[in-house]
Design goal:
By secondary structure, this protein is α/β, with parallel strands linked by helices. It has 2 domains: about 130 residues, Rossmann fold, CATH 3.40.50; about 110 residues, no CATH class. Helices cover about 40% and strands about 25% of the residues. It is built from 8 helices and 11 strands. Strands 6-11-7-8-9-10 form a 6-stranded antiparallel beta sheet. The chain has a 5-stranded parallel beta sheet with strand order 2-1-3-4-5, sandwiched between helices. Helix 4 runs antiparallel to helix 8. It is elongated, with a radius of gyration of 19 Å.
């Protein structure tokens, strides 16, 4: 069998239709009808990707995604929301809780479903490759690995050192201690505000150096929460452009 995909939706018809299309592409499909059951499966069977409805009994999709990111054994699993609510606010709230992408039920076509699944799985594989390569240092282009990906890599691997981001004449510096963001500087900003003002920095380079750090902490929020808030702020800025 191929990669393992978990579908979480309280509508059995939706689960069946998605399952048929995914199994035709040789994916292994697991099903759950609510977030509580889905979270148990995530921890026990460790799927390669999760597709979840938003409006469900017992635990809705937003809370389910948040718990996967914050408490599960595979916090970085690709996560796609499946929703019938075609609104920007829903999209933004989804990304705020840690979703990677979303699909609109009323417009869903097999080609779009398979395309997004394949894209998410490819990105996850690249992420794992970068995770294997991160030893004494990590460097690259932001066009190849996003800031969020870099943050998550350093957090998940509990790295200690300094991340330097440069591009367009700007420079940012973020200090990590065993994967925790401790201090950040960007332009006139410091701490969490420096992170939130980075914006969607797509052009430039990053370099992480594994060194001992000795700075006064300016970031006091959990790193995963800082990353999710950074995503929310960046997405909101994009929606007003």
């Amino acid at each position: 069998m191929g990669k393992k995909i978990l579908i979480v939706d309280d509508n059995k018809t939706v689960r069946t239709l998605l399952g048929i299309n995914l199994r035709k592409e040789n994916y292994e499909v697991i099903e759950a009808d609510n977030g509580v059951e889905g979270l148990t499966i995530v921890n026990e069977q460790k799927p390669d990707l999760v597709i979840s409805d938003i409006l469900m009994p017992q635990m809705d999709g937003f809370e389910f995604c948040k718990r996967v990111r914050e408490t599960s054994s595979i916090p970085m699993v690709p996560f796609i929301f499946l929703t019938s609510i075609d609104q920007v606010a829903t999209e933004l709230r989804g990304f705020r809780t840690g979703a990677d992408d979303y699909l609109i039920k009323s417009n869903l076509k097999k080609e779009e479903l398979i395309g997004k699944v394949e894209a998410m799985l490819t990105k996850a594989q690249e992420f794992k490759q970068a995770e294997r390569e991160i030893q004494e240092g990590l460097s690259g282009k932001l066009s190849d690995l996003s800031l969020v990906d870099v943050f998550q890599l350093l957090m998940m691997n509990k790295k200690t050192g300094i991340l330097t981001i440069t591009g367009g004449g700007d420079k940012a510096e973020i200090h990590f201690d065993e994967g925790r963001m401790m201090h950040a500087e960007f332009k006139q900003f410091a701490g969490e505000e420096a992170i939130y003002n980075l914006g969607e920095w797509k052009e430039g380079t990053f370099r992480f150096e594994s060194v001992s750090i000795n700075v006064m902490p300016t970031i006091h929020t959990a790193t995963m929460n800082v990353i999710m808030e950074y995503c929310r702020v960046t997405d909101e800025k994009k929606s007003f452009q």
